[in-house]
Amino acid sequence: MQISNEDYEQLKPLLFSLGYRLLGSVTDAEDLVQETFLRAYQAEEREINNKKAYLCKMMTNRCLDVLKSARRKREQYVGPWLPEPLLITSDDPSEAILQKEGLSMAYLRMMEHLTPHERAVFLLREVFTFSYREIASMMEKKEDNCRKLYSRAKEKLSAVKGESLHYENNRSVVDRFIHSFQTEDQGDLLELLSDHVTLYTDGGGKVRAALRPIYTKDHVAAFLFGIAKKRPNDFYVEVKNVNGQPALISYADSKLYNVICFYIVGGQIQDIYIIMNPEKLPSNG
């Protein structure tokens, strides 16, 4: 199969987007994209009618192999596991596929409740709009089996149906979140938090972080204000596009300190995700 430079430039964002959504890891997705293209370059000459489907099949299979070992590693992970945040830095048309639904931190976390095959079928159908016939060929399963996998995945992911993906509306919530700390207005923060809010901190055993999720708005607010009081003098935050939504990039001691993402429904914060594991922080933050 002949893979041209044009094929590489056109399909690389697609494969990365598929790999990232499957694995929740920028680093692993980037590595597997390169491996997929390398193997395609080295493949014996054969007639391939649909390079996109063929490469997606190769990428999916490699991701499924990684997911099998990743599940064992995550069972031993110290504290809550959160996906690696994806900092979106440009308006390049090639990144348009990254902006589609199914990229938010809440969505990626819910993907963890799916089996690897449910996750693959759901993404190939819902995000990348492949037909069931194409998916069945990629997954080497029957079409009816793929339909059932998709249906089960859809049902499991129904919990994030109410999520707001309107960037500007959510930006106003995040700005108010910041303002509540700047003015030390705990009452204002409590109004922003849902009665069922949960806060997750992912330190991965590399840095100090809460080992269990924190529940209820009072406990979450107390935890956040406790952290704020201990912040260094040179601590500051910026609002940036992370996983297609406004998030806080925090800096301290002249380096990136953490990334804070939100799950927002109806103008209220349902979940807060604080990624502190240095191995997951964007290098270009």
From TrEMBL:
**Subunit structure comment from the entry:** Interacts transiently with the RNA polymerase catalytic core formed by RpoA, RpoB, RpoC and RpoZ (2 alpha, 1 beta, 1 beta' and 1 omega subunit) to form the RNA polymerase holoenzyme that can initiate transcription.
Q: Which GO terms describe its molecular function?
A: DNA binding; sigma factor activity
For this entry, the protein name equals: RNA polymerase ECF-type sigma factor
Residue ranges of coiled coil: none
Can you supply a Gene Ontology BP term from the record?
DNA-templated transcription initiation
Occurrences of domain RNA polymerase sigma-70 region (ranges) = 8-72
Give the matching Gene3D superfamilies: 1.10.1740.10, Winged helix-like DNA-binding domain superfamily/Winged helix DNA-binding domain (1.10.10.10)
